[in-house]
Amino acid sequence: MRTVVVDLGLADARDCEPVAAALEQFTPTAEALRPGLHAFGARGPSRYFGGEQALAGLVARASAEAAPSARSVGVGVADGLFAAGLAARTAPRAPLPAVPASALEGHGTGPPHAGLHGTGLPASTAVLVVPPRQGRQFLAGLPLTLLADPISPLFSEDGTEALLDVLWRLGIRTLGDVAALSRADVLGRFGWPGLVAHRLACGLDDRPLQVHPTADSSATEAEIDPPADRIETVAFMARALADDMVARLARDGLDCVSVGITAESDSGHASLRHWRHELRFNAAGIVDRVRWQLEGWYRSPERPTGPVTLIRITPCVVAPADGRQLGMWGERSEADGRAAKALARVQGLLGGEAVTVPRLTGGRRPADTGRRVPLHAAAVDASPAQEPSTATANGSKAKKDRGRKPARRAKPGKTTEVADAPWPGRLPSPQPAVVLDRPEPVTVTDREGNTVTVSGRGEVSAAPQRVTDSRGGSRTVVSWTGPWPLDERWWRPSARRRQARFQLVLDDGSAHLCVLESGRWWREATYD
Amino acid sequence: MRPTGAEASAGGAHERRIPVEEALEALLPEGSIRRGTAVAVGGHGSMTLAVALAAEASRRGSWVAAVGMADLGVAALAERGADLDRWALVDPPAGSGGRGSWGAGLAADVLGAVVDGFDLVLLGPGIRVTGATARRLPARIREHGTSLICACGGDVSGGFANSLQPELRIVIEQTLWTGIDDGHGRLLARRAEVTVEGRGAASRPRRMLMWLPSQDGRVACAEPGQRSAFGDGLQDLTERRAG
Q1: Touching A: B residues 194-233, CB under 8 Å
Q2: Which residues contact B71 (CB under 8 A, 6 or more apart)?
Q3: CATH 3.90.230.10 fits A220-345, yes or no
């Protein structure tokens, strides 16, 4: 599908709306991917405006006028979103193209030079049209790293960095190199992300643009005048904004799954947090988030010194409304809602990182076999925008949005497989119930008081007799076992870890996993 | 026939009790944890026992929050049979002056929020509230029907644990690991002697033998017949200490 992408560089989010409005003179179906990055189908408009080259020039000019703060404007036309985006990104920047005035006048788009006399025009614009069916040739010369470009479906994927790292070390430098690989091999070696990368590099971009008119993607905001020094006053203003936003989205058949809330104070401080809902926001839910965010903000060390002057609510992720309702008697879904609400409140108090969800991961050391995934990361991973296939094809996708639990009870896919895979050298059951976040330095001595060591051949110097912790407390070893050697990632010197592990039972009945690494003893875990 | 309202409140998330695994029912005077009450667990192995008590509830769809348990081992949690998708772990972020540090006021607000939203809350050594906040907690959990399990490590009768007015105090008094010896074997199973002390009708302390866990990885109350075997084990331990 021939696609036009307009790239305004790192434009201010507030410039998004005028650009979207400017693009409406070319097409009713322009889609904003993020502030400053817009796309629409080229087929109709290009016929009307005299071909793709002419269309691109007009779009560049209109966008530049609409967003005077943009540093540069790139417009790319190609088969598919990815190629068009990269065309816009990589087109050589040049002075504003000289578009024949007749082209604009002829199509009644208003006074052609209305905005040209201003001084705020961007330094450069660029237009690149990749001819049909030549996307692959165009992409072939581009560097590999563009697979992680914001236009790419792999942009926010967990595994992308690792994928590019491996490809790079395999000597693959350009998208052409990727396209030259066998598709089956790439799929076999890298799974879903590799397949996507291969398809992108081949110029096969099957992610369709949104074809129905976009919902208003810009923020709703309200100046608060006089500035409010009470949270309730702000919440009252936010209620009107939220009602309006939710109603507009509902009219378009969309649910708001995530919102960004910005509050600014007259002392120049600003607070931006993103809030995600397990199902969909209603207006009251958004107002709750506003209240919690302000509470947390006014409590934080960076609290504003002045009253709040502005509140802004941005719908960040919208999903087609699925019409799900709470259970009639407030059973499971009500409990889910209560829990989600409580966690959101805790996040408001302590920050987003404070709430984590436990996930099994593969590994040998206790800290690797299970991890704590921040709630928002786990939630983002399962956002409804994901293609369903990713849930099973990509390990990282299996971290599910716990909030959406009842609707998706599927067992975690790859994560469990990784965790269940044989990890030679992993600890035998039972697993330690306490795994120290940071291992505690200890000393382990033998009967003579010498530190116990392990030779290169895995022989222990003497039986461990006493363990002294970092606070000086000392206990006698009742029974012990080890050393269990662990040599991880020996193929990569910087990441290599060699340990000798011991299980030690002390005279107070406690049992610990202590490790000897580079001549130093650590307590890694406790069998509490 | 009961009125519809009562019927609704008797089922689903409004069950009056938090179920525990069958193997642990003998530990509790009523075979389950009453909603709106607190249980304090102390001694070596309290983390394992606290998690085991909560695992079944998460499997049956209750939400469980673990507050102040920054060191909770995720693999062990899974080994106890907990449904990880129903667990949330709340700890102060590492950046804010080190792990486990939050002001008393903040801790009270966090506890308040968690108690409002969860059926079952585990409290670890990482959170302590004092004074009026602690005294208000029992009323708050009663009101919301939330149950607390406090893994206190050492002290179950003083300080924070006491201010929760636990309905049940479970103290793991003596433990013995099996399967490990001087330089060979490995930790295999742990036998534990546990004292359970309740309030009211259950106020007479009961002594129980437990596996924390057993060789097949389960936390369970031991069969009565195993008492003698454990006695030998204790003696064995004492001898070892003497030597």
Answers
A1: 213, 217
A2: A434, A435, A436, A437, B124
A3: no
CB pairs under 8 A between A and B: 205
pTM: 0.56
Range(s) for CATH 3.30.1490.100 in chain A?
220-345
CA dist A289 → A256, A332, A427, A441, B47 (Å): 14, 22, 43, 42, 34
Taking contacts as CB-CB distances below 8 angstroms, the residues of chain B near A356 are: 88-89, 91
- pLDDT mean values, one per 10 residues, chain A (528 residues): 81 58 74 68 85 91 81 87 87 60 40 38 76 89 86 71 88 92 85 82 63 47 82 86 83 69 84 64 82 76 81 72 38 68 83 82 82 64 31 36 36 48 79 90 94 90 93 92 85 79 93 93 93
pLDDT of residue A384: 31
Question: Does any CB of chain A come closer than 8 Å to the CB of residue B65?
Answer: yes
Residue A258 pLDDT: 67
Q: Which of B113, B217, B240 is closest, CB to CB, to A429?
A: B217
**Residue B72 included in any domain:** yes
Q: What is the pLDDT of residue A300?
A: 67
Interface test with A, best of B7, B53, B71 (most A CBs within 10 A): B71
Q: How many domains, chain B?
A: 1
Whole-number Å distance between alpha carbons of B77 and B83: 9
In a domain, B3, yes or no: no
- Helix, strand, or coil (residue A309): strand
**Closest C-alpha among A472, A510, A523, A441 to residue B154:** A510
Q: Where are the beta strands (DSSP E) in A381-450?
A: 434-445
Within chain B, which residues score under 70 in pLDDT? 1-15, 93-104, 153-158, 223-243
Report B:71-130 residues touching A (Cβ under 8 A).
71-79, 84-96, 99, 102, 106, 109-110, 113-114, 116-119
**Tokens 């001087």 label which residue?**
B182
Cβ pair A335:B8 closer than 8 A: no
Q: How many helices, marked H, and strands, marked E, lie in chain A?
A: 16, 17
Going B32 to B209 to B167 to B204, the CA torsion angle's sign is positive
The CATH number of residue B100's host domain is 3.40.50.300
**CA within 13 Å, CB half, A360:** 22
Residue B230 lies in a domain: yes
Residue B53's alpha-carbon distances to A173, B45, B58, in angstroms, are 54, 12, 10
Q: Are strands B120-123 and B64-67 parallel, antiparallel or unpaired?
A: parallel
**Closest residue in chain B to residue A419, using alpha carbons only:** B75
Mutation target for B interface from A278, A336, A350, A359: give the one with most B CBs within 10 A: A350
Q: CB distance A478–B240 less than 8 Å?
A: yes
Q: With b meaning 16 or more CB within 10 Å and e meaning fewer, what string describes B160-174?
A: bbebbbbbbbbbbeb
Domain holding B160, by residue range, is 17-242
- Chain B, 172 to 191: residues with Cβ < 8 Å from chain A are 174-177, 180-187, 189-190
Q: Nearest chain A Cα to B51, which residue?
A: A433
- From B239's Cα to the closest Cα of chain A, the distance in A is 11
Contacts of A360 in chain B (CB under 8 A): 74-75, 78, 84
CB contact under 8 A, B174 and A429: no
In a domain, B6, yes or no: no
Q: Which tokens belong to A378? A: 């786990």
pLDDT at A225: 79
* Residues of chain B with C-beta less than 8 angstroms from the C-beta of A525: 73
**Is the Cβ–Cβ distance between A210 and A31 less than 8 Å?**
yes
Amino acid A123: pLDDT: 53
| CB atoms B84 and A509 under 8 Å | no
Q: Which of A330, A338, A429 sits opposite B117 (nearest CB)?
A: A338
